[in-house]
TrEMBL record:
Role summary: DNA repair enzyme that can remove a variety of covalent adducts from DNA through hydrolysis of a 3'-phosphodiester bond, giving rise to DNA with a free 3' phosphate. Catalyzes the hydrolysis of dead-end complexes between DNA and the topoisomerase I active site tyrosine residue. Hydrolyzes 3'-phosphoglycolates on protruding 3' ends on DNA double-strand breaks due to DNA damage by radiation and free radicals. Acts on blunt-ended double-strand DNA breaks and on single-stranded DNA.
Residues carrying the site annotation Interaction with DNA: 515
One Gene Ontology term of the molecular function aspect: 3'-tyrosyl-DNA phosphodiesterase activity
Subcellular locations according to the entry: Cytoplasm; Nucleus
SUPFAM superfamilies: Phospholipase D/nuclease
Assembly with partners or alone: Monomer.
Residues involved in substrate binding: 261, 492
Lineage: Eukaryota, Metazoa, Chordata, Craniata, Vertebrata
UniProt protein name: Tyrosyl-DNA phosphodiesterase 1
Pfam families, per database record: Tyr-DNA_phospho
Family: Belongs to the tyrosyl-DNA phosphodiesterase family.
Gene Ontology biological process: single strand break repair
Keywords from the named record: Cytoplasm, DNA damage, DNA repair, Exonuclease, Hydrolase, Nuclease, Nucleus, Phosphoprotein, Repeat
């Protein structure tokens, strides 16, 4: 059957009608160990999604735009087929049919790019230095001035403690105030005693190298969700390291993932919590836009302190302990006790987590989008003309939303996002504008990484073609404000903005993409919330930062001195977002793009 929308037109194969709700989560491949060994030269040596495997393969074996030596099992781009409706692209998920796409990308003049790089050749737009892949990904040599910047970050004016990761290939001034994982694990942050790393995709050898030499033999607990062959691969990576132990998160509901990204760092001087959006692999800390919340250094409580001691006004301590208890793992008991022994009272953010399960009664409000709804109703301050304040969602992956918005996105999920200031009020949710930020094909093509950046945007053709209605909500990625327009986002953020986008009522940075698996979906006439995955994020509310007007101002250029850092929140991308044009296409990872080269002169054939 034929489906059409403003940003896509596909012939739908009936064989794809039964794709899963969570089909576009970054699920690990369950390829056998023998397959892994055979593909080690070009493939990853750690469990990861099929989309990332395709990106790594294309990096190792790039296809130039004039290279017609396609793999035998992949059809080249088909002939142009004009669409009378002017709806853009015509695609099929069938293996027998070829891609049909308008050739406008080939003819279109590449727009003036947003990274300050040499521009004689369009392919040099946003292009990285000419180092080998391994050199670029693994090289991080901190200069003395950068070390000073890191120290200043800990002691300077950053009340929100929200950071971006450093990006190689952008102007250095935009990396001022940003962090690399080696900064976070630096002795400047504390004298490490032990650590726990919660994550989804983990390269153990790379992770160990991010710790300073003096900390590499300290006890390290890795919390993961791998099973069967993927688990065996992960454990095999760690065999050379006697200090590494593992905790397997239980995933009892199909298609769930352990998607949380958190570090617990125990120092001689205290404890630190880091909640972020990056996988523990080199690519995620190299040329992507990622977010980090870095806690204060939490001091140890005096011996004999009460069980409620060290709690913050945001209830962060007990919420973090409850989140860890949800794993139901004896291995995490040590970390729960350590948190209990420290003073977390300086925390100003709220924890918003998801844990797998089916929840009823008051338990429904502990996790997922109902947790966010409860916090916004009880803690956010309403403002005049509240119903005209748009919701903005920004993410790197998309699950199945159903045949129309009423099934989840514009019903229960939007109701949670627009809640505010009155536990009893139910706003007119359909009157609230919704802006969804997701990269276009051109965003990916013109990025620092080129087409392989799309490996971390695992939106599939099978899901996209069933929800063309969703694409009318889509807006382009643009981050002039942080110098990261060319750094594809893996960060996930949600916020409520004023109509002029000069203020925000709240801001959430999280691991949770736009999916029911991450946020939960109501069942049994709304009496039960079902969540498949582990997710974690932090919510910033103005009142927790001493702002009684009910909103943050939006900071302009991140380096601007005219913005008061105590009242202006550093939203990391441009507001207002720009809606897709008629010719813009959302990035879909598992179809070829061969009409125009990326910034490295390559095309994309995901096989």
């Amino acid at each position: 059957m034929l489906q059409e929308a403003a940003h896509g037109r596909w012939t739908v194969s009936s064989s794809d009608e039964s794709a899963e709700d969570n089909s576009d989560s970054e699920k690990p491949s369950t390829s056998s160990l023998s397959d892994s060994a055979r593909n080690r030269a070009s493939g990853p040596q750690y469990p990861c999604s099929e989309a990332r495997k395709a990106a790594l393969k294309r990096k190792a074996s790039p296809l130039k735009i004039n290279d017609k030596n396609f793999p035998a099992d992949i059809p080249p781009a088909g002939k142009q087929r004009t669409s009378q409706e002017g709806l853009g692209w015509c695609l099929s998920s069938s293996d027998e049919e070829t891609e049909d796409k308008e050739k406008h990308a080939h003819k279109e003049t590449l727009k003036e790019e947003k990274c300050d790089v040499v521009k004689e050749d369009p392919r040099s737009l946003c292009k990285d230095e000419k180092l080998s892949g391994n050199q670029k990904l693994d090289k991080y040599n901190e200069t003395s001035s950068e070390a000073k910047d890191t120290w200043d970050l800990l002691n300077g004016e950053n009340p929100f403690r929200f950071f971006l990761t450093k990006v190689r290939g952008i102007e250095q001034r935009y990396n001022s105030g940003a962090l690399h994982i080696k900064d976070i694990l630096s002795p400047l942050f504390g004298t490490l005693v032990s650590s726990a790393q919660f994550n989804y995709c983990i390269d153990v050898g790379w992770l160990v190298r991010q710790y300073p030499l003096e900390f590499r033999k300290k006890p390290l607990l890795i919390v993961h969700g791998e099973k069967r062959e993927s688990k065996a691969e992960l454990l095999a990576q760690a065999r050379p390291y006697e200090n590494i132990s593992f905790c397997q998160a239980k995933l009892d509901i199909a298609f769930g993932t352990h998607h949380t990204k958190m570090m617990l760092l125990l120092y001689e001087e205290g404890l630190r919590v880091v909640i972020h959006t990056s996988n523990l692999i080199a690519e995620d800390w190299h040329q992507k836009t990622q977010g980090i919340w870095l806690s204060p250094l939490y001091p140890r409580l005096p011996q004999g302190s009460s069980g409620s001691a060290g709690e913050s006004e945001t209830n962060f301590k007990s919420d973090l302990i409850n989140y860890l208890m949800a794993y139901n793992s004896p291995i995490l008991k040590e970390w729960i006790d350590l948190i209990q022994e420290h003073d977390l009272s300086e925390t100003r953010v709220y924890l918003v987590g998801s844990t797998p399960g089916r929840y009823q009664g008051t338990d429904k409000e502990k996790w997922g989008h109902l947790r966010l709804r409860k916090l916004l109703k009880e803690r956010a301050s309403p403002v005049p003309a509240w119903e005209s304040w748009p919701v903005v969602g920004q993410f790197s992956s998309i699950g199945s939303m159903g045949p129309d918005g009423s099934k989840w996105l514009c019903s229960e999920f939007q109701e949670s996002l627009v809640a505010a200031g009155n536990p009893l009020a139910t706003p007119l949710k359909n009157d609230v504008p919704m802006h969804l930020v997701y990269p276009t094909v051109n965003n990916v093509r013109q990025s620092l990484e080129g087409y392989p950046a799309g490996g971390s945007l695992p939106y599939s053709i099978q899901t996209a073609q069933k929800q063309l209605w969703l694409h009318s909500y889509f807006h382009k990625w643009s981050a002039e404000v942080s110098g990261r327009s060319c750094a594809i986002p893996h960060i996930k953020t949600y916020m409520r903005s004023s109509p002029d986008f000069q203020k925000i009522a709240w801001f959430l940075v999280t691991s949770a993409n736009l999916s029911k698996a991450a946020w939960g979906a109501l069942e049994k006439n709304g009496t039960q919330l079902m969540i498949r995955s582990y997710e974690l994020g932090v919510l910033f509310l103005p009142l927790a930062f001493g702002l009684d007007k009910g909103y943050f101002h939006v900071r302009g250029k991140m380096l601007s001195e005219s913005n008061d850092s105590a009242t202006h929140f550093p939203v990391p991308y441009d507001l207002p977002p720009e809606q897709y044009g008629n010719k813009d296409q959302p990035w879909i990872w598992n179809i070829p793009y061969t009409d125009a080269p990326d910034t490295h002169g390559n095309m994309w054939v995901p096989s």
